[in-house]
Structure formats: structure tokens, C-alpha cells
Design a protein that fits this description.
The protein is α/β, with parallel strands linked by helices. The protein has two domains: 177 residues, Medium-chain alcohol dehydrogenases, catalytic domain (Quinone Oxidoreductase, Chain A, domain 1); 135 residues, NAD(P)-binding Rossmann-like Domain (Rossmann fold). It is 28% helix and 28% strand. Strands 3, 6, 7, 10, 11, 18 and 19 form a seven-stranded mixed β-sheet that branches. Helix 4 packs across helix 5 and helix 4 packs across helix 10. It is globular and about 65 Å long. The two termini are 18 Å apart. The model has no long low-confidence stretch (mean pLDDT 96). It binds zinc ion (2 copies). One zinc ion binds next to helix 2.
Length: 346
């Protein structure tokens, strides 16, 4: 096997160059994956633009990308669950799986987490990836890796719906129709929630949502969406999924909640949020829960993708090859209004 592989190297803010890296070594419990497709995420865009997100500051050259799917090339000697040739998706968060938090089952909160593509761990925009086998999930034959890589955002959606504790017969509003909002809305629908309202100010996203079967869509630049949803729902909704990371949507969320409702925070906020009206929340005995990444959600995401229960492919608006990564990320940033999701073919 070749010793070197192709990789898209982030050389500094806004600058990607194709280069070579050694093919990674893999340990006895690891899998070497030939990467086929990688989704582009908002975090990739932030790192590309500024080389940092909050306290995470990259050292260059770096490799972005944390939504990979591909084919198993080789396995470590202790790995029996997977074999060369298997189609797989790779969960990008390496938890320690030994600390009390991990042992409690909430490994997404592991304090030792090493996340693919954040500082200290090179990402997936490259030909090969070595990763612990317990985070590499087999994909049903007949599935395309271009779809399987979208298990990552879908897992975010599945985890958030599970955090919400929503029950059959209850109603929900999803604020923000980007990839995560579309995933949340589709998971709700797939779980039998019929009353799902989705808001965004971007027409392309709203059209996508409609094409995906989300019927109740509202343009936030077109009148008072809170009043419109309240009118249709008979006063409010039982769950609000905040997927925008904007102050305006926080206020809208609290206004939209029914008595005993739950707001789920999924969007990352670029700036510190203002005070929340806790009295308003208290008078409704409503709650706020948060949802960070995912834990134990990849198998469900992959089976929803391969069975067609959730149509991830329809969320994708653009496709590029690995050597067009600079163009892909620039397109995503400059044509934000046109892009719902970009997938890179390696
Ligand atoms: Zn992501
Ligand atoms: Zn841990």
C-alpha cells in the first residue's frame, strides 16, 4: 500500500492547498477507512474563515472535515466486527469510554473528548482515516456513501428529539431550516409527530423543507411567524427546537411554548445571549433543555438513511470533489442563501 495520501490542507485562514500526508498508522483496535464522502458542516466554515472557534485555535497546516463515510481498507488485529470492503460511516467524537461520564452512557459529554477536525486531531478531507473500531458503523449494502456521511447531522437531529421527550400527538416548531433544522423536522415526522412548523428567512431552505414533506413552513421575513404559528396551533406548541443560534429565535421560542412546553437548544450562539425571561418560563412551568452532538445515535441514523425513512440526499444542494474544497467552502460562505448542504467526494 502507498505510504502517502492526498489531503486538502488548510494552510491558514481562507487558504486550502492540495498536498500529501503519510497514510495514518492504525492500532490493534482501529480501522483504516478509505474515505469516499464527507459532509461540510458549519464548524468547517468557521475554522476555514478564521482558523478558530472560540477557544479552539488551529495550528497549520490542518485538515478539516468530520462527517466521513467510506470503505474499510484494513482492520487492526483485535477487530472482528468489520472487515476490508465493508461500507461504513465514522462517528467523529473519540470519547475515552472509561471516565464516569462515559460509563454513565452520556459519552458526548466526556471531558477527554477528542473530536475529529478540531485542534489536535486532523479531519477527514483526505484519502485515509484511522479510527477506533467502536466508532465505525457498518452501512447496509446498497446505500451510497454520499448519503451515509449525512449520518452525522442526522444523529444531531435524533439526539435532540430524544432530549425533547416529545410524545405522539404533541406539536413542535423548528426554528431554522438549515441542515440541522431539516434533520430535526424529518426525525419528528418519522416519529409520527404530525404537527411540525418550521421557520426560516431563506426561501431556498423553506422550499427544501417543503419538498421534504414539512408542510407548515413560515418565512421569518414575512410577517409575525409567532402569531401565525400560535393561530394555527391554537395557542402554542409543546416543543420548540432552536436551530439558529440567534437571539431573536430565543425570544420566539419562549413565546411559542405551550404551558409545560420544552425548548431544546441545538444552535450554537456566536455571541453571548441576553437574559431569558425566567418569570415567563415559570408562569408556564416550561423548561429549557440543551442538546450537544449525539450519543448512541449513529446506528439509528444509518438505518433511517438506508431504509429511506429519512431522505438525507434531498437536503444536499451542492457537490464538489476534494481538490475543489477551497471553492466548495467559499461557495458555502458566499452563497449562503443557495446552500443547504455540501458533500465532498474524495
Ligand atoms: Zn457536523
Ligand atoms: Zn470519558
Amino acid at each position: 500500500m502507498a505510504k502517502m495520501m492526498k489531503a486538502a490542507l488548510l494552510m491558514g485562514p481562507g487558504k486550502i492547498e492540495m498536498g500529501e500526508l503519510p497514510v495514518p498508522e492504525y492500532g490493534d483496535n482501529d480501522v483504516l477507512v478509505r474515505v469516499k464522502h464527507v459532509g461540510v458542516c458549519g464548524a468547517d466554515l468557521e475554522f476555514f474563515k478564521s482558523g478558530r472557534i472560540g477557544a479552539w485555535v488551529l495550528e497549520f497546516p490542518h485538515v478539516l472535515g468530520h462527517e466521513p463515510a467510506g470503505i474499510v481498507e484494513a482492520v487492526g488485529k483485535n477487530v472482528t466486527r468489520l472487515k476490508p470492503g465493508d461500507m461504513v460511516a465514522v462517528e467523529p467524537g473519540k470519547a475515552c469510554f472509561t471516565c464516569p461520564t462515559c460509563l454513565s452512557g452520556r459519552y458526548n459529554m466526556c471531558p477527554e473528548m477528542v473530536f475529529m477536525s478540531v485542534p489536535g486531531c486532523k479531519g477527514a478531507f483526505k484519502e485515509f482515516l484511522a479510527w477506533p473500531s467502536n466508532l465505525v458503523f457498518k452501512v447496509a449494502p446498497g446505500t451510497d456513501t454520499a448519503d451515509a456521511c449525512l449520518a452525522e447531522p442526522l444523529a444531531v437531529g435524533i439526539h435532540s428529539v430524544s432530549q425533547s421527550g416529545i410524545k405522539f400527538g404533541q406539536s413542535a416548531a423548528v426554528l431554522g431550516g438549515g441542515c440541522i433544522g431539516l434533520c430535526v423536522a424529518q426525525v419528528l415526522k418519522a416519529q409520527g409527530i404530525t404537527e411540525v412548523y418550521l421557520t426560516d428567512h431563506n426561501k431556498v431552505r423553506l422550499e427544501k423543507a417543503k419538498a421534504l414533506g414539512i408542510n407548515q413552513i413560515f418565512n421569518d421575513h414575512d410577517g409575525d411567524v409567532v402569531a401565525q404559528i400560535k393561530k394555527l396551533s391554537g395557542g402554542g406548541v409543546d416543543r420548540v427546537f432552536e436551530c439558529t443560534g440567534s437571539q431573536k429565535a430565543v425570544t420566539q421560542s419562549l413565546e411559542l411554548l405551550n404551558r409545560n412546553g420544552i425548548m431544546v437548544v441545538i444552535g450554537m450562539f456566536g455571541e453571548p445571549t441576553q437574559a431569558v425571561d425566567l418569570n415567563g418560563l415559570l408562569m408556564k412551568e416550561a423548561s429549557i433543555v440543551t442538546s450537544f452532538r449525539y450519543c448512541h445515535n449513529y446506528p439509528a441514523a444509518l438505518s433511517a438513511i438506508s431504509s429511506g425513512a429519512i431522505k438525507v440526499r434531498d437536503m444536499v444542494s451542492h457537490r464538489f470533489k476534494l481538490d475543489q474544497l477551497q471553492e466548495a467552502l467559499t461557495t458555502n460562505i458566499q452563497n449562503k442563501k443557495e446552500v443547504t448542504k455540501i458533500v465532498i467526494e474524495i
